[in-house]
């Protein structure tokens, strides 16, 4: 899946990844050099750092950012409160880290990027990406004042959110390929209405009570320490990674009615939830009679640690024994 995303970004960003200028006085004569500025075309690598005002940063961006620009780094600045890169439509990589006074990032003109990383921004309040369509990776980490992250046009990409997060709203209405990774948040709900291929990873979001991914067909799911009561993945057919759902103390139901194929590199762990015996029985029946496990699968299934204890009963015991006869190790209460 990562190859698919990366290939899409390569195609979309090709116009901004042309050759450097003729080797000469790097950045001195203003016309050539491996990181010189070709008039109207920009530098390949742009660095914004140190004590700098908004006006000075805007002037540097106007002079140095252009069609030849592939990488922009904004690090360790002071005085800079607003970073305006809204004129940029396509670039390979942007890194924004450790800027003491930065409160606003405007990337509203950006449509395609391979990697966008923003981190350790203690005063940052907003990141605007209203027109971003595709990205290999978007990372937002340790930005404690950012409460809302909206990507209304994103169709391809992986969104990673982590560290000191106060996020209460995440908007991804058009995302179809890629996924979401969240390590800690105040989200109460997450809706991925069009996601068909990708992954959903959520950990440490104890306020999360609703997760919707109704079209997810091929992918992986990792959900830990939430307040979900039920998990319904009605279209999931192929598991190409982990199905790890554990330590969700309110979770009483997991529905995967169309899962038929589990790849060799996958894992299944559904422990330490509150699944009753009736749900354990249904899962065991699915694993035994409906789901095909690829050669090389670990043949280990974890269902133990439910609250209260939920051992298999009746047909569940029969299905468990059938799995054991096939070489599986099944751990349950």
From TrEMBL:
Signal peptide: 1-19
Domain of life: Bacteria
Keyword Signal part of the UniProt annotation: yes
Keywords from the named record: Signal
Name of the protein in question: Receptor L domain-containing protein
Source organism of the structure: Flavobacterium frigoris
């Amino acid at each position: 899946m990562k190859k698919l995303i990366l290939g899409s970004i390569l195609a979309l960003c090709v116009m901004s990844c042309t050759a450097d200028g003729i080797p000469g006085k790097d950045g001195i004569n203003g016309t050539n050099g491996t990181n010189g500025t070709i008039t109207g075309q920009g530098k390949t690598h742009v660095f914004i750092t140190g004590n700098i005002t908004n006006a000075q940063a805007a002037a540097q961006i106007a002079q140095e950012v252009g069609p030849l620009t592939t990488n922009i780094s904004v690090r360790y600045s002071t005085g800079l409160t607003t970073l305006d890169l809204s004129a940029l439509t396509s670039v390979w990589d942007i890194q924004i880290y450790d800027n003491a006074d930065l409160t606003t990032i405007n990337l509203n003109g950006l449509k395609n990027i391979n990697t966008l990383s923003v981190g350790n921004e203690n005063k940052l309040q907003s990141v605007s990406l209203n027109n971003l369509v595709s990205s290999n990776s978007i990372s937002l980490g340790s930005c404690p004042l950012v409460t809302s992250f909206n990507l209304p046009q994103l169709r391809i990409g992986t969104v990673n959110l982590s560290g000191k997060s106060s996020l209460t709203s995440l908007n991804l209405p058009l995302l179809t390929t890629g996924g979401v990774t969240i390590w800690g948040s105040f989200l109460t709900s997450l809706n991925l209405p069009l996601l068909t291929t990708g992954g959903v990873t959520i950990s440490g979001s104890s306020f999360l009570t609703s997760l919707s991914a109704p079209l997810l067909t091929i992918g992986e799911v990792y959900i830990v320490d939430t307040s979900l009561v039920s998990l319904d993945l009605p279209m999931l057919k192929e598991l190409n990674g982990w199905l790890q759902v554990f330590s969700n103390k309110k979770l009483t139901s997991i529905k995967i009615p169309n899962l038929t194929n589990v790849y060799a590199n996958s894992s299944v762990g559904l422990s330490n939830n509150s699944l009753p015996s009736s749900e354990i029985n249904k899962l065991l029946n699915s694993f035994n009679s409906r789901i095909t496990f690829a050669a090389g699968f670990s043949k280990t299934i974890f269902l133990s640690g439910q609250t209260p204890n939920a051992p298999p009963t009746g047909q569940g015991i029969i299905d468990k024994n059938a799995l054991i006869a096939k070489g599986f190790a099944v751990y349950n209460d």
